[in-house]
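Continuing the batch. This is chain 6 of the set; chains 1 through 5 are on the previous pages. Same settings as before, nothing changed between runs. Recording input and output for traceability.
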Amino acid sequence: MKHLPLQGLKVVEFTHMVMGPTCGMVLADLGAEVIKVEPIEGDRTRTLLGAGIGFFPMFNRNKKSIRIELHQREGAAAARRLAASADVVAENFKPGTMVKYGLDYASLAKDNERVIYASLKGFLPGPYDHRTALDEVVQMMGGLAYMTGRPGDPLRAGSSVNDIMGGMFGAIAILGALIERGITGRGMEVQSALYENNIFLVGQHMLQYAITGTPAAPMPARISPWAIYDVFTVKDGEQIFLAAVSDAQWTTFCDVLGFDELKADPALAGNNDRVRARPTLLAELGRRLQAFSAAELAQRFEAAGLPFAPIMKPEQLLDDPHLAATGGLSEITLTDGERAGQAVKAPLFPFTLDGERPGTRLNPPKRGEHTREVLGELGYTATEIERLIDIGAVA
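Output for chain 6:
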């Protein structure tokens, strides 16, 4: 892409884990120069194992890295000098942390009224803001785990949904602040939080109760508004999701599967009729569908324009033909761990700009890969940089 919309924007992010880095990556993918400030030992997500092994390479492409020891006077001074040069500063540390180093919004705005400062937290200011938040914590206290699991068995969603979406909402707020700055010339502080993001996610269920007075049931036990909207076990034990969410789709459903007698049954004529008959109808369909393979059902449903989905695992998506054809995966080079130096594919953001997907310009950075470059651009001489490195203020 010849030109990206945020080209020329400078972002300094004091972030870690998932929420903050996601916010920075949105801006980076849109063309901003994003400088990631890491502690001397590097971002802790670089060395996570298990479910966390993909955090750093997934959420830190298109960024530069500088390592700064904020606990050291010279290091904190370098961080303030860097932040003072930024259009946007983002952080996701505990409340009060950035104040200790003169890196809070009030301190930075004294010398740069145009700065936009994004605080990405567990909770927006209020009674809970002293608590330590994790994605799982807010899913449990925010009703999402209750809605995801079976009754009596709360279950976190299978992805870091609040971290990722909280970071994205932070980026949306930053983009809004940039437009406002273009009008008024002044920056502002914006905030995004995991808990409030989670509340937004379950808002539809809150409104269901507010309107009906009936609490929303967990998704596995919900009363579906559609009769055909389920996972079916078919031939050879395969599974596939099938749906028919209108009377026209029900007619087509019966036609493509040869279920003429079901189509003709007046007790199944309307959607609400089928919903009322759902337990017996699903049992009957489950029996009939065992004659079909998942591939055959997929072929018939696709040809007829009916909703369907194979049950895929994340690893299978790396070879998904649609993602391959549309450029939905971008190659990055790993920087940490046993596979450092190897290329892997990672998903891009789900949007296009002028018909193109913003891709990978910079691989996830090595620890402090750009320290000398960034400090040099701030006006430090080579001698000064080497001294800062020697005393452990930067690396």
